[in-house]
Amino acid sequence: MGPVIEVIDVHKQYNNGIVANKKINLCINEGEIFGIFGPNGAGKTTLIKQITTLIRPTSGRIKLLNRFIDQYPAVAVNNIAYLGQTASAFNAYRFDEIILHAGILRGLNKNEAIKQTDYLINRFKLDSKRKRLRYQLSGGERKMSMILATFIGYKPILILDEPTNELDPAYRAMVWEYLLEHNEVNNTTIILVTHNVLEAENVVNRVAIIDQGEVCALGTLGELKSQISDEVKIIATLKKEVCLSKLKYSIKKIQKNKYSILSNTRDMPNVFDSMVDHIGLHNIDDFRISTPTLEDVYTKLTRRDWHD
């Protein structure tokens, strides 16, 4: 399978002087589920908007299906379905009208657009919302209307920017199930842009981690996690507030009474014993050990916390 998208030395600087992307190079293959991960403000959305031709790079070029999109912008329009983070329009449209019109704009005839609209609404169990105006819907239902409008027309490339924000667990599961099915059956190339890596780790094949406009890591999940493969994370929830500063380990407070401790595999028993000696087993409400996440890879590479 060859590349469908090639990003070549793409640099984007806005008129106010802010540099959003710095000489980014990426190659995304046909049929791949590719993750573009990074904290808020890292430059992910700017990169995606350049791939979809919504904005132009300051320098560098982008190839889509072996054509430079600055010369052939229609190749992006004809092959990409893009879900942005927000959509403030369409408030006067019904739920089903949003999906239907998206299908017609993508070139479907009316009968086929109606057929696909009905299928998607039934598939996602949203028939009761069909005739409601967008402003009458909850935040999650409004997001689902835009997700289904992205799915209609079956484009070979899906680019989804924070697709599951605002969705409840049931809708999230249905969206992931649909995407995995489409990827397997139709060889759809899916680009997933998110800062919620814990949720997305289960579906992506390869990942680019972007930090301050640059690609700081690129590879499969296994390749990236192997960089800290000798480490584990201990998550401890305590029954009361306890000072852990005396413990000589890398401790981070996640929330009130909840801490993470990064340790190498060999030292893990000593870490647990030290914590029990310091606070007492009876003061531990919950305790678990997890393997490294992409957030941990990011912290290791940049020496900054993901959420900072």
Description:
With 308 residues, the chain is α/β, with parallel strands linked by helices. It is 32% helix and 30% strand. The chain contains ten helices and 14 strands. The longest helix has 18 residues, at 169-186. The mean pLDDT is 88.
Largest sheet: 6 strands, mixed
Number of strands: 14
How much strand? 25-35%
| Order of helix and strand elements from N to C terminus | EEEHEEHEHHHEHEHEEHEEEHEH
Mean of the pLDDT scores?
88
Strand order of the largest sheet: 6-7-8-3-9-10
What are the salient characteristics of this protein?
308 residues; 6-stranded mixed sheet; alpha/beta; globular
Topology (SSEs and partners):
Layout: E1 3-13, E2 19-29, E3 33-37, H1 44-51, E4 59-64, E5 67-68, H2 74-79, E6 80-83, H3 95-105, H4 110-123, H5 139-151, E7 157-161, H6 169-186, E8 189-194, H7 197-200, E9 206-211, E10 214-220, H8 221-225, E11 231-238, E12 250-255, E13 258-264, H9 268-279, E14 284-290, H10 294-302
Parallel strand pairs: 3-8, 3-9, 6-7, 7-8
Antiparallel strand pairs: 1-2, 1-4, 4-5, 9-10, 11-13, 11-14, 12-13
Helix pairs in contact: 3-4, 3-5
